[in-house]
Structures are given as C-alpha cells and as structure tokens.
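Please go through the sequence and fold tokens given here and tell me how the chain folds. Record follows.
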Amino acid sequence: MNDLSPEEELTQLKRELSKLKLEANLRKSLSTQLEAQKKIADQAKEEALKKSEELEGISGKLAKYLSPQIHEQIFSGKQSAEVTSSRKKLTLFFSDIVGFTSISDELESEEITSLINFYLNEMSIIALKYGGTIDKYIGDSIMIFFGDPTTKGPEEDAKLCVEMAVEMLEKMDELKGTWGKNFSLRNDLEIRIGINTGYCTVGNFGSNERLDYTAVGGTVNLASRLESVANSGSICISEETYLLVNSFFKFHDPKEIDVKGYLRKIKYYELNRDAKVDANQIINLSGSNFNISIDKEKLTQQEYAQIKNAIDRLQSQKT
C-alpha cells in the first residue's frame, strides 16, 4: 500500500526521471568517448602502418648502400651505429679491371656507368653467394672480406674467398664477347685479384655524422698490393692465405715482392687454375706452436732429409 501523498509521489517520480536522464546522458557520453577513442586508435594504427611502410622503404633503399650482412646486423640491433671497432682475423679480397683508365677514355660517361654497373652486379652476385662482406666499390675496384660479421673459421673463410675469386674469373671467361656486343669495347674485360689473410681492425670508422663499416691495417694494404702485381686473369695470394688453402688448390712456385712497410720481401703465390689438387698430396699439420705444410710432389730428397733430421732432434730432446 502506497502511503505517499500525490505531491510526494510526483517528487519521487521526478527524482527517478532525473536519475534516468543522468544515466542516459552518461551512457551517451561514454559511447561518444569510446567512439572517439576507437577513432584515435584506428588513426594511430593507420599512422603506425604508414610509418612502418616508410621505414621499410628507407631500409630497402639503405640496403643498397650496405653489405647485406652489415644491414642485417644494424637493423636487428646486433650492430650499433657508433664509432667502434674490434680486431679480427679476416681474409681480404681486392680486384680491379685491367687497363680500365684507357677503356674509360673511349666511352661516354653514360656508357661507363652502364658498363661498371653491369660488371659490379655480376661480381656482387658471386660474392654474396659465398658469404663475402662487400666492403666497398672504388670505381672499378672491389674490396670484400670474409670473417666478419660472421665467420666459419680462418681456413673455411679463406677457402670460400679463393673459391669466390675462381668463380669470378670463370664468369669473366663466360662473358667474353658480351663486352664488345653490349658495350662497344674493342677487347674483352679482364680482371686481376689479390687475397691476403691476417688480423685487421674492423668496425665503424668516421665521425658522429658519417660512418663507414670497413677493415683497416697492414693485412688490407698487402691484399691490395698483391692485386696490383697480379697478371690479367690471375689470382695472387699471400703466404698466410696459402698455408690455409693449399690443400684445396694448386699454385705456381712462389715469388717475392718488396712491400712498403715490410722489412723483408713478401712471398706470394699465383693460383694454377689448370691443375687439380690430389687430397693425399698435401700434408698440413698445425698446433699452438707450429704450422707445417708439405707438398709431397715437390719435396726433394734434401728437404726430406732436413725434415727427418728435425724430427730426430725433437725426439732426442724429449727423451
């Protein structure tokens, strides 16, 4: 039974109506806010997607200026964009086109650009196939190294580098005739290659505004020097590289050159592309205190006697 007077009932109804209106307004306000938040979230998502696409575009463009290994290291966060370096054992590769200066004098700038880009593209495909880090292009010259940012060990790195060099020469043989047909050259292009293995300082060099990821040191300079003494279509390697790969490839007898910064003549070897290696012909032994490589085919009786005498002396000292 309702004991409220009509006036009280009216007052109560007004209160309930006001409450319902307030709740309705709150729901409407909340719905409007949620709608606004959703719109903001959608806009933020769209903006983030746009930025992501822009970054991917920038990354793709930047990838053309960096070796793939370095690009991956930077964008994965493994490599910082700071002036920093470390010392590592690398195998360095240098190559250039023989007589390129006189060749370029015969061509217009557009023709030179087309020629160089075609050549560098063909060589770069091979370099990346073998896992080489393309350091830089210097005109017609190419600098590549193995052993950073990833390495398979000094011997395997050196072996891959030489295999890469051999395939590059094979590619140049394959392209004979192309240079005259497509680029109006009188003669086919020929390249020469120098390879050296040793410790280098590798990393970011430059200023806070401009960095270059490269390798520096005597090992780099010697690889470049060996390239300069190589004949057309040949590969010259240092003794350090030779000791790592001579069980996989055949070489001509060693030669010596004077190199600025070295007190003694530097021994180097030219790859014999026509000869195959007998795996049982080369004896390679190494340890923390020694490194021995013997070509049984070239070993003379006098050298055999010297080796035997050295072993006898070692055994007598141990007993």
Summary: The radius of gyration is 35 Å. The first strand starts at residue 85 and ends at 97. The chain has a mean pLDDT of 84.
